[in-house]
Structures are given as structure tokens and as C-alpha cells.
Design a protein that fits this description.
The chain is mainly β. Helices cover about 5% and strands about 60% of the residues. The chain has a single domain (about 1-630), classed as TonB-dependent receptor, beta-barrel domain (Maltoporin, Chain A, Beta Barrel), CATH 2.40.170.20.
């Protein structure tokens, strides 16, 4: 069959070697505590002058709530996650953009689906991950296609001077939910490795109010079970003379009963098998760092028996060098081969990208960054993509710093395989979506022996042209470049830490105000002009209070999501909602070879009845018990 052409033989071999019965019993935990890591490659934020890049470290101190990437972003940031239910499909909306306008990377490897053009953030567990970086705003010149609203980077890294350790974690929760992980890391001479196995079993048997039935009865969800398992393998070899070889492999499988909408008796099922691997050779020198990367992403999705396969193979090379103390430069090339065997079509294509980023710092407190990218897609030039940023520290003393930032950048999105070739309706003549984004920001930091405070305020304005939407035509739907969207808004982030003797107190708040509007629509849809895009809340606020004393720690978190319009004409509205959670944990040590953390967490304390998406019920008050052991 045609779909077998994408087969990866080693994938089948590895899968068969895994003992399925035992594998289903592996333990999962949300995060892994690691020793400090020696950075081999140049950090991604180096050339992002004028834009906000936020790092979320993954440790037990961050709390055990980060079951998946979707949960982490929803609970810890001001970003909005469009979730179809717990463990169901979840996509990211950043600065008013759609799900396909945000790029997701794993260890520098793009993992957005080439057929759908987006990523399902619910199938990316935090097991085995070390860090999440969020790049706010258009970043097409830095990362390529899809990064119109921003980009999210998942990464794993191994410490150089690590000891042998094994960790076990489990999480038991309400409604028949159980998550587990086991992880082992070790260093043998110049080679480090870590193996992580995880399993999630979610029955999701939660009660809900059926507003679509007469009398609004209370029912129990009976078709939303999720079973997920996976293996993450990391390897690092220090070859000497500044040379490092890094390899990572991620094999995951998730089977889901698709939660039906209220009033529906649907019994859809979906199974995803994902294979991702990446290999980096890094050469660090006194003036330059070379990085050669190869990677493979193979996604197999079966929905109600229909099989869809996609493959992305990547080869890239780049060099970072510093010709002088005032200049820093990155030059790179990236080649991508994409192949899709979908239920209604088969297609393969090639992409070639050249990119250049340059930093210039004429003064210690003033820096400029210029980024340039050109993609060749199937022999055709995608619109040239530039970006320019500036950072000016206009006040600084031993305890306080004020910084003004600015950025203007272009982004783009190549039409997806489904947009161009789906039968019926695909439109091979679609143009790439394009965006222009402007941003102005202010950063303030204060630090002394007692308190540390960080504030950031950002104002942004973005215009997206050639926005692709599917429209009815004769007896089927087809995509067209008909929409222009303007998005503008404000983002505010605040974080402070206070030390009072043996007490450590902390507070963080993340707020986003986003206003979007249609500036052009298809004929017959004039009522949509000037309206807010569906499922883009104008207000999203996330807050979290932390306290720690000796071996005890606790937190209280709250989030507010404003009303969302369901339709483009803004006639149907979902009400705003607030969710609160709290938890506590205790660190312990037994003998000399066992230590760990035990914790309890309550989510949706006030048992709020809410919907993120229309007719998709969400769970009420629920409890989670966590235990983590280090051996």
C-alpha cells in the first residue's frame, strides 16, 4: 500500500522490543530534577532583541500540575489553550492568532503537523522534558513558517557532571486518572544518558450538567478515556576539544475516546503514534560555535479507521561567531523533506531555507538585532522575511535596572498539505499567509538581599494578510485567501520573590488583553467585518502565590478567562469563568539513598461549571495525590 512508503523500520523494531504489558505499568511524573546543565549550543533568545522570551523550568518546585504541555501553558501563563476536554485535542492561541500560527519545536526540531499545520499540545507530556521556552510575537525570521503569533520550544539536556540516579513518580487523581514515570540517568566517562518511560491512564469519568437535554440532567462522562505511553531517550557524548554529540529520541503512543459534544451520541476514537529523533554535532571554539543538526518526525494518526501518515526529515547547519566584542552573527541553512500519505491524497515536497541573524552592540547598554530569512518552497520563493529588534538599558544601578525594547518583524505560514491537496476541496493555488508585527516593551528589575522583583509590559500590533479560511462552494468546502486580520493588545507580567528568614514567598501574575478584528471577509459575510475572532478571549489573567519553609511548600493559583465568541459574527457568546487551585507538598529523606516529595493538590476548588469550547463540558472539583522518589 502507498502508506507503507513512509514506514520507518527501526520504529517497528523498537516498538516490538518494548514489553507491552510491563510498559503499561511504567511510572510517570510531571518533572525531573536535574543538576546544573552546561550549555553546548547558543541560547535561542540570543538574537531576539526587543521580544519577550519566557523560560519555564520544570522541577518539583514548579508544582506537579504540568501533566501535558497544554496544561502547563494554560495554568502557568496568560496564553489561551483551546481544549476540547481533559486529554483531548488542545491548540494554542497566541496574540489572537489561530492554532496554525504558532510554531512548536522539540530540541530545535519543528513538530507542527505538515498536513494540519498545527500541533496538538495535549499529546506532548512533560515527562522527560527539562525546559519550556515561549517566544512571544512574530518570529518567522528566526524560526521559519508558522511562527506568526509566536513559538514554543521544548528541550531536553543532560548535565556534564552528573551522578547516577533513578527517579520514580506517580500521580493519582479524581475520576479514575493515573499518571506514572520512571527515569534513570547516568554518566560513564565522557558519555551521559537518560532514559524516561511514562504512562497516562485517564478514565475521565467526571459528572457534568447536560445543558443540551430537557431538564439539564447530571450525567457522567462515559466516552473520554485516554491511554498514553512513551519513551524518551537522551544521549550526550563529550568528544573533547569543545566537541559535543547530542542525540534524543521520543516514541509516544496515545489512544483516545473522543469526548462527544453535549447532545451527541458520537463514539469517535483516535490513535496517534509519534516518532521523533534528533542528532546534533556541536563544535565550540573561542570565537565560533558550529551546529549540524539532523532530525526525523513521523506521525501516524488513525481516526475512526482512516489512516493518515506524515513524515518530516530535516538537515540543517549553522555557525555562530563573534568577529568582535560589538558584533555577533548566526548564519544557517535548513533543508526539509515532507511526505504525506493521507486518506484522500498523497504528496511530497521539499523546502530550503537560508537565514542570517546579526547582533550589534555599540554600547554596553544598547543592542540591535537584525534577522533575515528566505525560504524556497517547491522551487518558488516564499516572501522574504526580515526582523529588527532593539534593546536599550537606560537606567541601571547595583539593585535596579530599567530596559526599553522594540521590535518589528515579518512572519509567514506556508499553506498546509490539507489546504492544498485534500479531496474534495484542496486549493493548490493558495498563497502563503503573511504578517507584519510591531512591539514595544518595558522591563524593570529590582533585586537586593531580601526581595527580587521583575515587571514587563508589552504593547503589540499585528496585521495578517492572506489568512486562509475554508468556505462552502457548490457541494463541498474549499480554502481561500480572503481574510485580513488585525490583532493588537497588551501583555503584563510580574514576578517577585521575598526571603524572610527561613520563609520564601513568591507571587507571579500574567495578564493579556487581546483585541482582534476582521478587516476583510468573503462575499456574503459582511456582518463579520470588525468583529472579534472566535475563541479569542479579550482578557486572560493567571496568578500564582508560592510559599516555602524548610521542607514544606504550598501554592494557590487562580486564572480568569474572559468571554469568547463562538461565531465570526459575535452573536453567540461563551461566558467568562474563573478557576482556583491550591496544593501543598513535603520534602523528605529516608536513610542516605532515598529522598523525595509527597504532595496533594485540589483543582477547580469552587466546583465551577464552565466550558472552554462550546458544548464541551470540563471537570469540576478534583484532587490529585503525588509522590516522587529519588534513588
Amino acid at each position: 500500500m502507498a502508506v507503507e512508503k513512509i514506514g520507518v523500520p527501526i520504529l517497528a523494531i523498537i516498538w516490538l522490543l518494548l514489553p507491552v504489558g510491563a510498559f503499561s505499568q511504567e511510572l510517570l511524573r510531571d518533572t525531573v530534577d536535574l543538576d546544573p546543565v552546561e550549555v553546548a549550543a547558543v541560547p535561542m533568545s540570543t538574537y531576539a532583541f526587543g521580544q519577550r522570551v519566557r523560560t519555564l523550568g520544570l522541577s518539583e518546585a514548579e508544582g506537579p500540575a504540568a501533566r501535558s504541555l497544554a496544561d502547563l501553558l494554560q495554568e502557568r501563563t496568560g496564553l489561551f489553550i483551546r481544549s476540547y476536554g481533559p486529554g483531548m485535542t488542545a491548540s494554542l492561541s497566541m496574540r489572537g492568532t489561530s492554532a496554525g500560527h504558532n510554531a512548536l519545536f522539540w530540541n530545535g526540531l519543528p513538530v507542527n503537523s505538515p498536513s494540519l499545520g498545527q500541533a496538538d499540545y495535549s499529546i506532548f507530556p512533560m515527562a522527560g522534558m527539562d525546559q519550556v521556552d515561549i517566544h512571544y510575537g512574530s518570529a518567522g525570521a528566526l524560526y521559519g513558517t508558522d511562527a506568526i503569533g509566536g513559538a514554543v520550544h521544548l528541550s531536553t539536556s543532560l548535565p556534564v557532571n552528573q551522578k547516577t540516579s533513578t527517579s520514580l513518580s506517580t500521580q493519582l487523581g479524581s475520576f479514575g486518572n493515573w499518571r506514572q514515570e520512571i527515569s534513570h540517568q547516568q554518566r560513564i566517562q565522557s558519555i551521559s544518558f537518560r532514559t524516561s518511560l511514562y504512562r497516562n491512564a485517564l478514565e475521565n469519568r467526571f459528572p457534568y450538567t447536560d445543558w443540551a437535554s430537557p431538564g439539564t440532567p447530571i450525567r457522567y462522562q462515559d466516552h473520554a478515556a485516554v491511554n498514553q505511553r512513551g519513551w524518551v531517550q537522551d544521549l550526550r557524548a563529550d568528544l573533547g576539544k569543545g566537541q559535543v554529540l547530542q542525540a534524543s529520541l521520543w516514541l509516544g503512543e496515545i489512544q483516545r475516546e473522543i469526548q462527544p459534544v453535549l447532545g451527541s451520541s458520537g463514539r469517535d476514537t483516535q490513535k496517534d503514534v509519534n516518532f521523533r529523533t534528533v542528532l546534533d554535532y556541536i563544535k565550540n571554539g573561542p570565537k565560533a560555535t558550529w551546529n549540524i543538526k539532523s532530525g526525523l518526525v513521523r506521525d501516524r494518526m488513525e481516526f475512526n479507521g482512516d489512516l493518515n501518515l506524515t513524515l518530516q526529515a530535516l538537515l540543517a547547519a549553522e555557525v555562530d561567531w563573534e568577529p568582535s566584542e560589538h558584533w555577533q552573527s548566526r548564519t544557517g541553512v535548513r533543508y526539509t523533506h515532507i511526505q504525506g500519505e493521507l486518506s484522500t491524497y498523497s504528496h511530497s515536497e521539499q523546502r530550503m531555507e537560508l537565514y542570517q541573524a546579526t547582533n550589534y552592540k555599540p554600547l554596553d547598554n544598547l543592542g540591535f538585532s537584525l534577522q533575515l530569512r528566505q525560504m524556497l518552497h517547491e522551487g518558488q520563493l516564499v516572501p522574504f522575511t526580515p526582523g529588527l529588534g532593539v534593546s536599550w538599558t537606560f537606567f541601571k544601578n547595583p539593585v535596579q535596572q530599567w530596559e526599553l525594547t522594540g521590535n518589528a518583524s515579518k512572519g509567514f505560514k506556508v499553506p498546509t498539505l490539507n489546504d492544498r491537496f485534500w479531496v474534495p476541496g484542496g486549493n493548490p493555488d493558495l498563497a502563503s499567509e503573511q504578517s507584519w508585527s510591531k512591539e514595544l516593551g518595558m522591563d524593570q528589575r529590582f533585586s537586593n538581599n531580601i526581595v527580587q522583583v521583575c515587571n514587563r509590559l508589552s504593547l503589540f500590533h499585528m496585521s495578517v494578510d492572506n489568512w486562509i479560511i475554508w468556505l462552502p462552494e457548490e457541494s463541498y468546502w474549499t480554502p481561500k485567501n480572503v481574510r485580513k486580520v488585525v490583532s493588537k493588545g497588551l501583555e503584563y507580567f510580574m514576578e517577585w520573590e521575598l526571603k524572610l528568614g527561613s520563609w520564601n514567598l513568591g507571587w507571579e501574575a500574567d495578564y493579556a488583553w487581546t483585541h482582534t478584528s476582521n478587516r476583510s471577509v468573503a462575499s456574503g459575510n459582511e456582518v463579520d467585518l470588525g468583529k472579534q475572532l472566535p475563541y479569542v478571549p479579550r482578557h486572560k489573567l493567571q496568578m500564582r502565590w508560592n510559599v516555602k519553609k524548610d521542607r514544606f511548600s504550598g501554592f494557590v493559583s487562580g486564572q480568569y478567562t474572559g468571554e469568547r465568541f463562538v461565531t465570526s459574527d459575535n452573536r453567540t457568546v461563551l461566558p467568562a469563568y474563573s478557576l482556583w487551585g491550591a496544593g501543598m507538598s513535603h520534602d523528605f529523606a529516608w536513610k542516605e539513598w532515598v529522598s523525595g516529595t509527597v504532595g496533594l493538590q485540589v483543582n477547580n476548588i469552587w466546583d465551577t461549571d464552565y466550558q472552554i469550547l462550546r458544548l464541551r463540558p470540563m471537570p469540576g472539583r478534583n484532587v490529585q495525590f503525588n509522590i516522587h522518589l529519588d534513588l
